[in-house]
Specification:
The complex is a heterodimer of chains A (474) and B (337). Chain A is an alpha/beta fold. In chain A, 28% of the residues lie in helices and 23% in strands. Chain A has a twelve-stranded mixed β-sheet, with helices on both faces. In chain A, strands 1, 2, 3, 4, 6, 7 and 8 form a seven-stranded antiparallel β-sheet that branches. The longest helix of chain A is centred in the C-terminal third of the chain and has 22 residues. Chain B is built from eight helices and 13 strands. In chain B, strands 1, 3, 4, 5, 6, 7, 8, 10, 11, 12 and 13 form an eleven-stranded mixed β-sheet that branches. Chain B has a two-stranded parallel ribbon with strand order 2-9. In chain B, a hairpin with a 6-residue loop joins strand 11 and strand 12. The chains are: A alpha/beta (474), B alpha/beta (337). At the A-B interface, helix 1 and strand 5 of A face strand 6, helix 6 and helix 7 of B. Strand 5 of chain A pairs parallel with strand 6 of chain B, so a sheet runs across the interface.
Chain lengths: 474, 337
C-alpha cells in the first residue's frame, strides 16, 4: 500500500493486486488514522486502450509462460482505496491515544508506511470494550466481536430498507439488553417480537420468563399473553368517542363530556359509565349511548391494566414487554400507545430506566409524543430506539438529538441525506450505506465513540426470530 | 493451439543470465496508443527495383464472393530493457481465425520473455534456427537487439509453417512478403510452406503494409503503380520485372487496391496456386475494410502488439524472472544531451 494523493480529508491509497482490503477497514498512514470508504480501480493511463484491444476478439485462448502469466494483466487491476481521515495518533508517554481531527500533514508518498489497523487495536485506541454476548462482528478481514453496551445507549435509530436486516438486528439488540438486565418496552407493529420467548422448534427458551406479551382485545390472560386494556379513567371523552364511533358534534358526545367532567380525578370504569348513561333523560341519546357502551364492553379494550407491576417484576433479571399492535386498527393503536407512553414516567419511577423500541413510530406515535420521548423523557430514564424503513418519516428532532445511528442498506438519496443530517457521519461515508449487503450495517455514535464501525449482525440460534407471518402458499 | 514448446525451450537454454543483474528498462509512454517496435525487416537489406514499362492496372472483379475460412498471423517483439552485454525482450504472436457463420477466435502465443546477451546469442539463435528450419544457420547471430527481432521472425515463421501444414481450405493471410533465400529466411522453407498450403487446398497470401520495392527511373514505391486509378484494381507480374536477386522473391508480386476507396498494398501470392492471381485477390478483397487492408490481419496485428501497460508488466516479470534490479544510468542522468 502506498499513499497516492490527499484531497481535503480524503486519502487515496494505491493497492497492489495482492493486497486485499475491505470497505470500513482502518489504515494507519504514518500517524494519521483513516478509514476506507470506497475501493476503485487505479486510473492508469492507457488502460482504456489496453482493455479495448483485449475486447476486440472475445473468444481467446492464450499460451503464456507461468512466470509471465503471474504478472500480466495485474497493472490494469491495481486498485485505489479511498480513505477518510478520522484523526491521528497521539503518544503521551507510553500510551498512544486516538484524537479526532488533524492539523498536521507530515506524510511522505515515498517513505510513509501504510498499515492496516487491526480492529482489536482500533477498539483499544477508541477506548471501546465489549463484554458478554456480542451483537455483531466487524466487517474487517479479521472480524472482531462488537456490541452496543447499555451504558452507550441514548436516542438510537435503526434504519434500512426492507429485508436489509434491521428488524433482526433490533431483536438481537433487544436480547443483548435483556442479557444485560435492562427492562425494555417494544411497540410491535407487525408481531415480529412475539416469538422471542421460543426456540426455533417452538419450545420455550431462556427468555421465557423475561418476555411478556400484551395484546389488545384479549379477554383472559394466558401463559403467553396478557390483555392490554385501557382503564377508562386514563383516556378522555374524545378518545372514547372516536373509539366507539360517536360523533363529537352529536348530543351523545355532550353527555360523554358531562360524564368525564363529573368524574374528573376519580377512578371509574365502564360500569360507572353504564350507570350514568342509564340515568340520561333523553331517550334517543340514552339508547344510542347504551348500544355504544355495550359494544365497548364486548370489545374487551377497556378495563384495568397494571403495566407498572409487570415492568417491576422484570426489574431484577431484565426483560421485555412486547405490545403487540398487529391486530389493532389505527385509532385504537394510537390511543393504546398514548396510554402506554403516558405511563412511562410512573414506570421509570418504579424501575429506574427503560429502553423502548418503536417500529415505524410515525404510524402510531404523535409527533408531539416523539418529541416528548426524545427530549423530556430522556430525563426520566427513557432510552428510545426508533426502527424505520424510511428515515425521513421521523421528525427532525430525532436526528438533532440522535446518539447512535445503526444503518443497514439505504439506497434512496433523500434518506441518505437525512441520515447525514444527524451529523454522526459525513456525506461521503454515508454513501457506503447504499452498498451494504443484507445483515451488514454502519454503526456510529456514542456506541463507537463517534468512529464509524461497519459490522454484520451475528445469527441467534436458540431464539425464534421470525414473527407471525402467513405465507401466500404452503 | 499449436505447441510452441520447442521454441520456448530454445529461449531458456542458457541459464547464465540473472542473479542480481542491473536492468535499465526501456522508456514506456503510457499515453501512446500502442507500443510497436517493428525492428529491421529482412527485405530492407535487398531493396529491389522493378521495371514498370508497359504495365497497366486492371479492374478487379470481386463477384461472386466465395465464402472461405480465414487465418491471419502476425507477431511483435519489444526490447523491454538493457542488461550488461545484452537486452531483455518479449515476443508475441497472434493467430486470428474466422470461418463462415462463426465467431472470430484468437490464439495468442506469448508474451515470451527472454534475455539475449553477447554470451548466449549464438546458442539461442542456432537452436531456434535449427528448430524452425531444420538446418544450421548460415551465419553468426546478430547483435542482441537485432537478434530479438530475428527471434520474432522465427516464431512467426514457425507458426506459418504449422498453419500451412494443418489448415485446410483456408485463406492464410500473412503479414509481409514471401521472400526467401535470405539469411533469416531459407527459400526452401517458404517453398515448403506454399506447397503444404496448396496440398491442403489452402491459399497463402502475404500482404505488406510497407515495401521497399521501387520503380526503375522514378524510384517511387511500387504502390504508386495504381496512382491515378480509382476503384478496385491491380497490377501483377512484378516478380519477373525485378532487376536484382529475382530468385529470392518466391511469390508472385502484385499491387492491388482491394477496396474502392482504399490504399494500394503489395500482395505476394503463391505462383503455383491453381487459382489465377485475380481470383486470389478477389478472395482477399472480400475480407477487407474500407482502407483496403484485410480485417483478420489487422486484428492479428492489433492483438499481438503490446500495450504500454503490458510492457510495464513484462518489465516487472523480467525483473522477477531474472532476479534483476533497476539501474540508473549515471551517464544519461548527468549528461542527458
Amino acid at each position: 500500500m502506498r499513499l497516492l494523493t490527499k484531497e481535503g480529508d480524503t486519502l487515496s491509497i494505491l493497492l497492489a493486486p495482492t493486497e486485499k482490503i475491505r470497505i470500513g477497514e482502518t489504515l494507519k498512514v504514518g500517524q494519521i488514522i483513516a478509514q476506507v470508504i470506497d475501493l476503485r480501480f487505479a486510473d492508469v493511463p492507457g488502460v482504456l486502450e489496453h482493455i479495448l484491444r483485449r475486447s476486440l476478439i472475445p473468444r481467446e485462448t492464450r499460451d503464456i509462460p507461468p512466470s509471465v502469466k503471474s504478472v500480466l494483466d495485474t497493472l490494469a487491476d491495481h486498485k485505489v482505496a479511498i480513505a477518510k481521515i478520522r484523526g491521528r495518533l497521539e503518544k503521551t508517554g507510553e500510551r498512544t491515544t486516538f484524537k479526532s481531527g488533524f492539523m498536521e500533514f507530515d506524510l511522505s508518498r515515498m517513505e510513509t508506511q501504510v498499515e492496516r489497523v487491526r480492529e482489536e487495536e482500533l477498539f483499544s485506541l477508541l477506548g471501546l470494550q465489549f463484554q458478554g454476548k456480542q451483537w455483531a462482528k466487524t466487517l474487517s478481514t479479521e472480524p472482531q466481536d462488537f456490541t452496543i453496551p447499555p451504558q452507550r445507549f441514548g436516542v438510537n435509530l435503526i434504519t434500512g430498507i426492507k429485508e436489509s436486516g434491521k428488524s433482526y438486528a433490533a431483536k438481537k439488540l433487544l436480547l443483548t439488553l435483556i442479557d444485560n438486565r435492562v427492562v425494555n418496552l417494544v411497540f410491535d407493529l407487525n408481531a415480529e417480537y412475539v416469538n422471542l420467548w421460543r426456540k426455533p422448534d417452538d419450545q420455550p427458551n431462556e427468555y421465557q420468563d423475561r418476555v411478556r406479551i400484551f395484546r389488545p382485545y384479549v379477554r383472559q390472560a394466558t401463559a403467553t399473553e396478557i390483555p392490554l386494556r385501557i382503564p377508562l379513567n386514563e383516556i378522555n371523552a374524545e378518545d372514547f368517542a372516536r373509539l366507539n364511533n360517536v360523533s363529537t358534534e352529536a348530543s351523545m358526545f355532550l353527555s360523554l363530556l358531562q360524564f368525564w367532567r363529573s368524574h374528573a380525578g376519580q377512578q371509574f370504569d365502564l360500569h360507572d359509565l353504564s350507570r350514568f348513561v342509564g340515568s340520561i333523560q333523553n331517550e334517543a341519546v340514552r339508547l344510542a349511548l347504551e348500544s355504544r357502551v355495550n359494544a365497548a364492553n364486548a370489545s374487551g379494550l377497556y378495563g384495568p391494566c397494571d403495566l407498572t407491576s409487570t415492568f417491576s417484576a422484570l426489574r431484577q433479571r431484565g426483560g421485555a414487554v412486547i405490545v403487540d399492535l398487529s391486530r389493532t386498527s389505527e385509532w385504537p393503536r394510537k390511543v393504546l400507545v398514548d396510554f402506554v407512553i403516558s405511563k412511562l414516567p410512573d414506570i421509570t419511577r418504579q424501575i429506574g430506566s427503560i429502553s423502548i423500541f418503536l417500529e415505524e413510530a410515525h404510524l402510531y406515535v404523535e409527533e408531539r409524543n416523539i418529541t416528548d420521548i426524545v427530549t423530556r423523557m430522556r430525563h426520566f430514564g427513557v432510552y428510545p430506539t426508533f426502527i424505520t424503513n424510511v428515515p425521513k418519516n421521523l421528525p427532525d428532532v430525532v436526528y438533532t438529538l440522535l446518539d447512535n445511528l445503526i444503518s443497514f442498506k439505504v439506497q434512496d438519496a433523500d434518506n441518505l441525506r437525512q441520515l447525514s443530517s444527524s451529523g454522526k457521519v459525513d456525506s461521503d461515508t454515508v454513501q457506503t450505506i447504499s452498498i451494504l449487503e443484507p445483515g451488514q450495517c454502519l454503526v456510529v455514535g456514542r456506541a463507537t465513540n463517534g468512529y464509524p464501525i461497519f459490522a454484520e449482525v451475528t445469527p441467534v440460534t436458540d431464539v425464534k426470530m421470525g414473527g407471525e407471518t402467513k405465507p401466500l402458499a404452503p | 493451439m499449436y505447441d510452441m514448446g520447442d521454441l520456448i525451450r530454445c529461449l531458456s537454454a542458457d541459464e547464465a543470465v540473472g542473479g542480481g543483474l542491473p536492468f535499465k528498462p526501456s522508456v514506456v509512454d503510457l499515453d501512446s496508443f500502442i507500443a510497436d517496435d517493428e525492428g529491421p525487416s529482412d527485405e530492407e537489406q535487398m531493396a529491389g527495383v522493378v521495371d514498370p514499362s508497359g504495365m497497366t492496372p486492371q479492374a478487379l472483379d470481386v463477384t461472386p464472393i466465395r465464402e472461405m475460412a480465414v487465418i491471419a498471423l502476425d507477431s511483435t517483439a519489444f526490447c523491454l530493457g538493457e542488461i550488461p552485454e545484452g537486452v531483455v525482450g518479449a515476443v508475441r504472436c497472434s493467430l486470428v481465425s474466422s470461418s463462415p457463420g462463426q465467431e472470430r477466435t484468437l490464439e495468442s502465443y506469448g508474451p515470451y520473455v527472454f534475455a539475449l546477451t553477447n554470451q548466449n546469442r549464438q546458442l539461442i539463435y542456432s537452436n531456434l534456427y535449427r528448430t524452425v528450419f531444420n538446418v544450421e544457420p548460415g551465419g553468426h547471430a546478430p547483435t542482441p537487439y537485432f537478434l530479438l527481432h530475428r527471434i520474432r521472425h522465427l516464431f512467426e515463421r514457425k507458426l506459418q509453417q504449422v498453419v500451412a501444414a494443418e489448415a485446410k481450405d483456408t485463406l492464410v493471410l500473412l503479414d509481409g512478403s514471401l521472400i526467401g533465400g535470405t539469411i533469416a529466411n531459407p527459400k526452401e522453407s517458404v517453398q515448403t510452406m506454399l506447397k503444404n498450403s496448396r496440398e491442403n487446398r489452402s491459399i497463402a497470401v502475404a500482404v505488406s503494409k510497407h515495401t521497399v520495392l521501387t520503380l526503375r527511373d522514378s524510384e517511387r514505391s511500387i504502390a504508386s503503380l495504381l496512382d491515378g486509378t480509382t476503384g478496385r484494381c491491380f497490377v501483377t507480374g512484378l516478380r519477373k520485372r525485378i532487376s536484382q536477386s529475382q530468385e529470392k522473391y518466391v511469390g508472385e508480386i502484385s499491387v492491388a487496391r482491394l477496396a474502392a476507396s482504399g490504399q494500394a498494398f503489395r500482395i505476394d501470392t503463391d505462383p503455383d496456386d491453381p487459382l489465377p492471381v485475380e481470383d486470389i485477390l478477389a478472395l482477399v478483397s472480400a475480407r477487407v475494410a474500407e482502407d483496403g487492408y484485410p480485417e483478420e490481419l489487422r486484428l492479428a496485428h492489433m492483438t499481438c502488439v503490446f500495450s504500454a501497460i503490458e510492457l510495464l508488466e513484462l518489465q516487472a516479470a523480467a525483473m522477477i524472472s531474472y532476479d534483476m534490479h533497476t539501474r540508473e544510468d549515471p551517464h544519461s542522468t548527468l549528461f542527458p544531451f
